[in-house]
Amino acid sequence: MSAGVLLFCFDTEHTRYHRILERCVRLVRKNITSEITVITNFDTYNRMSPMGHINYRFIEPELGNKLNGRAWNNVDRHMAYELSPYDTTLVMDIDYFCFTGNLKQFLYTDHDFLVPDTAHDLTGRNSFDQRRWSMIPMVWATVLLFKKNDKVRKIFDTVKYVKQHYSYFTEMYRIYAKNLRNDYLFAIALQQVNGFMGYEKLPFALPTLPPDCEVVEITDTGLAWKYDDQISCVEHQDVHVLNKEIANV
Amino acid sequence: MDISELKRQSDLSYDTAVAKRNALEKAHSRQVVVYDEHIFRADAETICLVRTLKESLDTFCVLDTNRNPVEITDPNQFLSVLVERNQESLNAYKQVYQTFSRRDT
């Protein structure tokens, strides 16, 4: 049974995501596995530094969302099932920095599909709790783990269906965010496929740095950030960094 | 105490509280352990349960973090995994905690 990590990376006009990918790959290889597949396009691939043995798959990304007038291509996650060459796949956002090997053990469980449903705000502001007004429990598709089988294929088929009719589903579930988000796609699909009941989850909160935190230093064991004129840091703890300026650190 | 000293102390206490919260969350994440393809939390409750069941049973069932039943056929090995991960995470937390104590003085 093969197991590996799947990463999506597409540079945009404003952000050199491949620089974030290079850091992410180094940490994945060090702490999780050397089986890595990157989904990218030729423009992004041509800018990447050599990263050792990695599988590449090339697609043209669908036009993505805009945040503060800047586009980012993040709506291809629904294709992870078809694009993954592994029996068990760990899909991660490239801005999720695994400074620990905590995720590695989940490659070897008997669960078909696992996703976390909470995030831990490292600045202590609980800024991710606002998502509770939605009618369904939300998930964080930043990290998700799946096996290739019939049930999981149906989950991804449903994700595609929800994506196709996104405005209908967001109205129905009282999701006010305008941008198409993988988190919502998977939350809705999982609820539908699982008969509107619960589903299995990764039992930890994703440590997350909100977008207003500026990362000032990053090493192989942790990172430091500036927020409100104060510098804080974490070491040996995974971190999801929402400020894309990390590409320039 | 003047107002600037109060502000300094308040900022310090806030920083310490946030750092402590993050360190505790880190410990909680590290306590998640996969055993026999199932996910468990190596917390005090699980350790006490396994230890109690082990005293009277050679094999027994417990629930994983997703409420699935798991038969434990080697209780000693399972308990050892739980205790090791629990202490590893709490020792790391203790090291960070000691830096808080130094900051307060």
What labels describe this entry?
heterodimer; A: 249 residues; alpha/beta; 3-stranded antiparallel sheet; 24% helix; 29% strand; B: alpha+beta; two-stranded antiparallel sheet; two-stranded antiparallel ribbon; 15% strand
Outline of this structure?
The complex is a heterodimer of chains A (about 250) and B (about 100). Chain A has about 250 residues and is of the alpha/beta class.
Structure description:
The complex is a heterodimer of chains A (249) and B (105). The N and C termini of chain A lie far apart (38 Å). The relative contact order of chain A is 0.17. Chain A contains 6 helices and 14 strands. In chain A, a hairpin with a 2-residue loop joins strand 12 (222-227) and strand 13 (230-235). By secondary structure, chain A is of the alpha/beta class. Chain A is 24% helix and 29% strand. In chain A, helix 4 (150-164) packs across helix 6. Chain A has helices at 17-31, 42-47, 80-83, 150-164, 166-172, 182-193; strands spanning 3-8, 36-40, 55-58, 65-67, 70-72, 88-92, 96-97, 113-121, 143-147, 201-209, 214-218, 222-227, 230-235, 239-241. In chain A, the strands form 3 sheets. Chain A has a 9-stranded mixed sheet with strand order 3-2-1-6-9-8-10-14-7. With 105 residues, chain B is of the alpha+beta class. Helices cover 68% and strands 15% of the residues of chain B. Chain B has helices at residues 3-30, 44-56, 75-104, and strands at 32-35, 38-41, 60-63, 69-72. In chain B, the strands form 2 sheets. Chain B has a two-stranded antiparallel sheet. In chain B, strands 3-4 form a two-stranded antiparallel sheet. In chain B, strand 1 and strand 2 (38-41) form a beta hairpin. In chain B, helix 1 (3-30) packs antiparallel against helix 3 (75-104). The A-B interface holds A 100, 102, 105-106, 108-111, 120, 122-124, 200-205, 207, 230, 232, 234, 236-238 and B 11, 14-15, 17-19, 21-22, 25-26, 28-30, 32-34, 37-39, 41, 65-66, 68, 92.
